[in-house]
Amino acid sequence: MEIDLVQLSRTIAYALRHQPASFGLTLDEEGWVSVDSLVGALCQHRSAWKQLQISDIEKVMALPGKRRYELRDGRIRAYYGHSIQQRMLREAATPPTYLFHGTTPAAYEQIRQSGLLPMGRQYVHLSEDRETALQVARRRTSQPIILVVAALHAHQAGVQFYLGNDSVWLADAIPPDYLTRQ
């Protein structure tokens, strides 16, 4: 029986980003877990996945779209999006001059006052290009608002930025002074 790679990807995200303990997994301080442990947990999670292999995880990682997982030295982790209490350590990096964030009209009113906050996540998520930020916002609203983040200026003022993956940047929070509505 062929494995539904989209469903497998969603389950991996849930296990690595939100509920590792419910899969019997313990992430290290950087979010890594043995890929063998993940495969074993997934095999137990769904009877249709009893024959799951590491190659199936690699197929998920090769799916088109955003890169969500990193596989290295027999370990795997989710790049970003964690809602677990254990904060994933990231290495600070110098961001590009500008980054983008897509949001809803209702959220924008709060952002104008308090800036960008991680809300239920560990970090604020930012896009390297306007189009990606627009796609993200369109998941929640038909009237997206795009914010331009003066990332380099904020970084020079002490705001920490972290590279999430090829096109996603993370930050602890962005004060409203560094945000402009586009």
TrEMBL record:
Keywords: NAD, Transferase. GO terms for biological process: tRNA splicing, via endonucleolytic cleavage and ligation. Pfam families: PTS_2-RNA (PF01885). Signal peptide: none annotated. InterPro entries: Ptrans_KptA/Tpt1, RNA_2'-PTrans_C, RNA_2'-PTrans_KptA, RNA_2'-PTrans_N. Gene3D superfamilies: 3.20.170.30, RNA 2'-phosphotransferase, Tpt1/KptA family, N-terminal domain. GO terms for molecular function: NAD+ poly-ADP-ribosyltransferase activity; tRNA 2'-phosphotransferase activity. Its EC number is 2.7.1.-. It comes from the Bacteria. Removes the 2'-phosphate from RNA via an intermediate in which the phosphate is ADP-ribosylated by NAD followed by a presumed transesterification to release the RNA and generate ADP-ribose 1''-2''-cyclic phosphate (APPR>P). May function as an ADP-ribosylase. Belongs to the KptA/TPT1 family. PANTHER family: PUTATIVE PHOSPHOTRANSFERASE (PTHR12684), TRNA 2'-PHOSPHOTRANSFERASE 1 (PTHR12684:SF2). This is Probable RNA 2'-phosphotransferase.
